[in-house]
Design brief:
By secondary structure, this protein is of the alpha/beta class. It folds into 3 domains: 2-193, Class I glutamine amidotransferase (GATase) domain (Rossmann fold), CATH 3.40.50; 202-390, HUPs (Rossmann fold, 3-Layer(aba) Sandwich), CATH 3.40.50; 403-504, GMP Synthetase, Chain A, domain 3 (2-Layer Sandwich). It has 14 helices and 21 strands. The protein has helices at residues 12-21, 35-41, 79-87, 182-193, 202-217, 230-243, 261-273, 283-290, 296-317, 330-341, 373-382, 387-390, 410-429, 482-495; strands at 2-6, 26-30, 45-48, 74-77, 91-93, 99-107, 120-121, 127-135, 138-141, 147-151, 159-162, 167-170, 221-225, 247-253, 276-281, 321-325, 363-365, 438-452, 455-468, 476-477, 501-504. Helix 8 (283-290) packs antiparallel against helix 9 and helix 13 runs antiparallel to helix 14. The two termini are 42 Å apart. The chain binds xanthosine-5'-monophosphate. Xanthosine-5'-monophosphate is lined by residues 300, 348, 350-351, 394, 396-398, 438, 472, 509, 513-515. Catalyzes the synthesis of GMP from XMP. The active site is at residues 78, 173, 175.
Length: 517
């Protein structure tokens, strides 16, 4: 396995995903991981990530020197290259501005890292690579033992190597797709230089997870809050495969789900797979708590708290439960570790399963803790879950509660459900569903004037939202074909009573968030 030491680059998770895609297990740890922990991790190779700092700032991040004493290959990327150079006796000169962008790199001499990898050949016979470069500080004097393996016009030391010790540094980012041969370069490092095999495959992940879960829980019973979302669905299928009837799921229908969603969850899990699912119909309880509430943050809190209350109630009725399973995935783990160091500003409070009565003394079981979202999906497919379920767009915990703007009432929910269903159904039919990252309808309590037949209509508005994004941190609105939008609008106007007009949201993120509340 590979150890990635994180210096705070926005791309660190991408490095990890690329390494995993090449079939090699890796973990991200903070740059200041101590010598003992590094040794205990026993990496077959180490990658030092980029980072926002300059090697020249007074308190700059330096890895523990043991990184360079373990006898394993090391790859430094961007800041990782600079700190490696500085720590091994080279000289790095500051530059006043940082710059990112496309660059053409000339591959220099021979190296195990880059040999034979190129986008084209120059007239002089040199290999050329299209890369995504970050010019920050510059390595000016090579550390002893290193030679240059790549250069650009502006960065004479775009890549360096010490072949004897198997230390490599790249000033550009192999992990981003703009670097066209990036995946090959990373694979060269982990497979050929570190000697890692392609063992991290969905089949192996499944086998190992099953063994680990069985060893962990033995004959104990496990409780899971099933929401119908991808993560909890995969946990349910995985635990059912591992321990069968020892798993009990509680599915709280909060009345804020999409059309037919509750029945679908029951039919997939209870009927088809034979999972023990307790369905709690709690629409009434949620809606009565939400009565008169219009503030989005307050709505989120009420929905979150009511969920916890009901879940706790159900859970405390079960006997002999020893474990609480959760669908925590690797990005959650990384983010909550990062949030501890740098207090992230709360834009919206997201909620997951909260506290349970302490008297229950439940131990936490998080079988997806090490997996990225795409790996969770592959595992779901491996477990036989339907493609449509595993590749569903994300759906927020508070559900339609934050898609009916303002006060949440039953009629508005019903209108929204129908409109949303039409939009999604047409997206699937047109083959557009998988091309957008998330799509949904929003109910606007604003009234506008319309005309139906000969009659004036004064009724609410439906907004359609569809975005394309890789990480949901930024997004662009999906440029859906006009004919398609036209079709959806006509169907909503014809089939959903009491909607005066349909609008399409063309706001990116930023400035808009993906959800409207
Ligand atoms: P925003 O609206 O913040 O959404 O741009 C980014 C992504 O997060 C989802 N989202 C939530 N997910 N609980 C969740 O589990 C929440 O409270 C919540 N709020 C937003 C949103 O659907 C989008 O995918």
């Amino acid at each position: 396995r590979i150890l990635i030491l994180d210096f705070g680059s926005q791309y660190t998770q991408l490095i990890a995903r690329r390494v995993r895609e090449s079939g090699v297990y890796c973990e991200i740890h903070p740059w200041d991981m101590d010598a003992q922990s590094i040794r205990a991790f026993a990496p077959k190779g180490i990658i030092l990530s980029g980072g926002p700092q300059s090697v020249h700032e007074p308190e700059t991040a330096r890895t523990d020197p043991s990184v360079f004493e373990l006898g394993v290959p090391v790859l430094g990327i961007c800041y990782g290259l600079q700190t490696m150079s500085a720590q091994l006796g080279g000289a790095v000169v500051p530059s006043t501005h940082r710059e990112y962008g496309y660059a053409e790199v000339r591959v220099h001499g021979h190296s195990r890292l880059l040999d034979g990898i190129e986008d084209r050949t120059s007239p002089e016979g040199q290999g050329l690579l299209d890369v995504w470069m970050s010019h920050g500080d510059r390595v000016d004097v090579l550390p002893p033992g290193f030679s240059v393996i790549a250069e650009t016009d502006h960065a004479p030391l775009a890549g360096i190597a010490d072949e004897t010790r198997r230390f490599y540094g790249l000033q550009f980012h192999p992990e981003v797709t703009h670097t066209r041969q990036g995946q090959r370069i990373l694979e060269r490092f982990v497979h050929d230089i570190c000697g890692c095999g392609r063992r991290w495959t969905p089949r192996n992940i499944l086998e190992e997870s099953l063994d680990r879960i069985r060893a962990q829980v033995g004959k104990d019973r496990v409780l899971l809050g099933l929401s119908g979302g991808v993560d909890s669905s995969v946990v349910a299928a995985l635990l059912h495969r591992a321990i069968g009837d020892q798993l009990v799921c509680v599915f709280v229908d909060n009345g804020l789900l999409r059309l037919g969603e509750g029945d679908q969850v029951m039919s997939t899990f209870a009927r088809h797979m034979g999972v023990r699912v307790i369905r709690v119909d709690a629409e009434e309880r949620f809606l009565s708590r939400l009565k008169g509430i219009t503030d989005p943050e307050q709505k989120r809190k009420i929905i979150g708290n009511t969920f916890i209350e009901i879940f706790d109630d159900e859970a405390s009725r079960l006997e002999d439960v020893r474990w609480l399973a959760q669908g925590t995935i690797y990005p959650d783990v990384i983010e909550s570790a990062a949030a501890k160091t740098a207090k992230a500003r709360v834009i919206k409070s997201h909620h997951n399963v909260g506290g349970l009565p302490e008297t229950m003394n439940l131990r936490l079981l998080e079988p997806l803790r090490e997996l990225f979202k795409d790996e969770v999906r592959q595992l779901g497919i491996e477990l036989g879950l339907p493609y449509e379920m595993v590749y569903r767009h994300p759906f927020p915990g508070p559900g339609l509660g934050v898609r009916v703007l303002g006060e949440v009432v039953r009629d508005s929910l019903a209108t929204l459900r129908q409109a949303d269903h039409i939009f999604i159904e047409e997206l699937r039919r047109a083959g557009l569903y998988d091309q957008v990252s998330q799509a949904f309808a929003v109910f606007l309590p604003v009234h506008s004037v319309g005309v139906v037949g000969d009659n004036r209509l004064y009724a609410p508005v439906i907004a359609l939202r569809a975005v394309e994004t890789l990480d949901f941190m930024t997004a662009r609105w999906a440029h859906l074909p006009y004919e398609f939008l036209d079709l959806v609008c006509r169907r909503i106007a014809n089939e959903v009573p009491n909607v005066s007009r349909v609008v399409y949201d063309i706001t990116g993120k930023p400035p808009g968030t993906i959800e409207w509340e």
